[in-house]
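tl;dr need the bound structure. longer version: we got a ligand (zinc ion) that a collaborator sent over and nobodys looked at where it sits. i said id run it. heres the input, straight from their email, havent touched it
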Amino acid sequence: MQTKPGTDFSDEESQRYSRNALLDGVGWEGQARWRAGKVLVVGAGGLGSAALLYLAAAGVGRLGLVDGDAVELSNLQRQIIHYSTDVGRRKVASAAESLTALNPHCRLETFDLRLDPDNLREVVQGFEVVLDASDNFVTRFLLAEQCWQAGLPLVSAAATGWHGQLLVQMPGAANPCYRCLVPEAPSAEAVPPSTQAGILGAVAGALGCLQAVEALKLLLDRETDLSRRLLAYDGLQGRFQSLERVKRADCLLCGKM
Ligand SMILES: [Zn+2]
């Protein structure tokens, strides 16, 4: 195991990342890989807050933040990257300030916009891993399609009420895509938004943390069960379930139609 930092980590970085470097499968080589890593996080809300904070803390060198909203008071019970004094500010500005305070080594690129078919390709360009931390199916479908076509791994999570779910859409003809699992957007009754069903901040945060774990593994080229499985979390029951995802021949995105 490599226990000493490489020559190009400063003393400050060596201390900051010392517990990462001790990790099985990471070392200073892995830390250097994270420092060179480029991760895009779409949504600076409940999922994105946790994911962004942990990615910055871990030392990912370049983080892209996409969000077109301003911070509202009702966001603060779950969107822990924003503070009471941030209410009314643009979310990307507020999040960037928190991330810089946490880790000034992290280079940030902010996109104060809502993703649409016209801006999607340009925003995603240049990143290696994309995290879908959005709160709507329009964005989820757009990201799934763009990432599939661009050959980019996508870590997709969702949370509502006491529940959350997580999957990784890995490029590769044999792998199932997001649309294999969710062919069409479900009705608002089937999946009520947080404005109707509420959402526990810690549940969203748990899923955001898991997204960060998957993104860090992807940067190290580690395989994950989640490329072929769905992880479902029921916070009320205290239960995780790992469910197989099947590739659909008639899938609108990845099928052979
Ligand atoms: Zn598919």
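gonna send this back to them w/ a short note. The chain has a mean pLDDT of 95.
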